[in-house]
Amino acid sequence: MNEKMKKRILFVDDEPMVLNGLQRTLRKMRREWEMMFTSSGKEALEILDANLMDVIVTDLKMPEMDGIQLLTEIKKCHPHVVRIILSGHVKHDMTLQSLQIAHQSLAKPCDAEILKQTLAKLFALKDILSDDSIKKIISQIESLPSMPAIYTQIIEEMQSEDPSIKKVAEIIARDVSMTAKILQVVNSVFFGLSRKISSTQQAVMLLGLETIKSLVLSVKIFAEFSRKKFSWFNIDELFNHSMSVSCYTQAIVKNEKMDRDLISPSLMAGLLHDLGKLILATNFQKPYRQVLTEAHDSGHNLWDLEYETFGTSHAEIGAYLMGLWNLENPIIEAIAFHHCPAKSMARNMGLLTAVHVGDALDREEHQAANQEPELQFDIEYLDNLRVADRIPEWRQVCRELYERNAA
Length: 407
Ligand SMILES: [Fe+2]
Ligand SMILES: [Fe+2]
Prior knowledge:
Number of helices: 21
Number of domains: 2
CATH superfamily of the largest domain: Hypothetical protein af1432
Radius of gyration: 22 Å
Largest sheet: 5 strands, parallel
Bound molecules: fe (ii) ion
């Protein structure tokens, strides 16, 4: 492999045994990765100042400068380096703090295979989305947001030996504004529940942990958006659109009798498919505002105008962040290609198809009456999958949902 194309990874751990172990197990990767190893945070920063690195994998508990201090510094001075924690037994509060500063964390001792897979997945994603335009845009973003702590707490609980609905409900209930928003969404017509839900515990029980997990992540991301600072951006419209797409995506997955395992990711993918718009709005205020105005006035595709201005679109940007947060690959793929599914490697009906169709149908629903109706689907892609003739049925299914919600 060309030296320039090699990924550069820096490992930091104060225990020589751990470093040696890593060095030994990852030796096979030398052709693809350029790896550096150091035993102190201070040295790690010196290495980063002198070398371009893609990823840092660090221990938490180290003398002098610990992992949190190190990653905080890196987030500030080298925001584009992907931050991974590889830690042993750490106190709970330290884990929580670390989750806000790292893109991912792995438990030590970490199976070399898992580390390899995690890194390989991160790099594959970077490759899918790494044409220079997105790199350029991402590099202008001051610091990519870390995964919300409340979401990681829920995941931790779900991955524990004996996950408890009560504990997950308690985690959510600690955040008052989150609770209010979750109850509002759960009680909205979208979920079609016959009785009013008044507590997080009821909500978790009725909707299940997977659904609640997706809702918490999306609600948190939307809640962190500052309405005051970006009053020109219609966040409520985007949230409603995302909710609709999420419902339509799920309806299509069920209607087509796709794998049942896709039902839960379809909620997440629908809710987050346009998340890149929030990143563009908050980081590129002036040009993005112009792009939105132009799209609105001209009726041109928003993403075409985004490509013209930024060389990439909200789809790739959102997918990039979700990749860093280690969401499942089908979700990342669905977000990355939701406007242009033909660009993906996927050749079967799947989550991407459902999100693409759900998004197209909702945009069709909201087309201004005075504009020429424009076909929102990638017909060639649907034709290749031999499902283009199913559009009228999907339209019907989603319209029924829409009318029920609007009633
Ligand atoms: Fe979109
Ligand atoms: Fe959309």
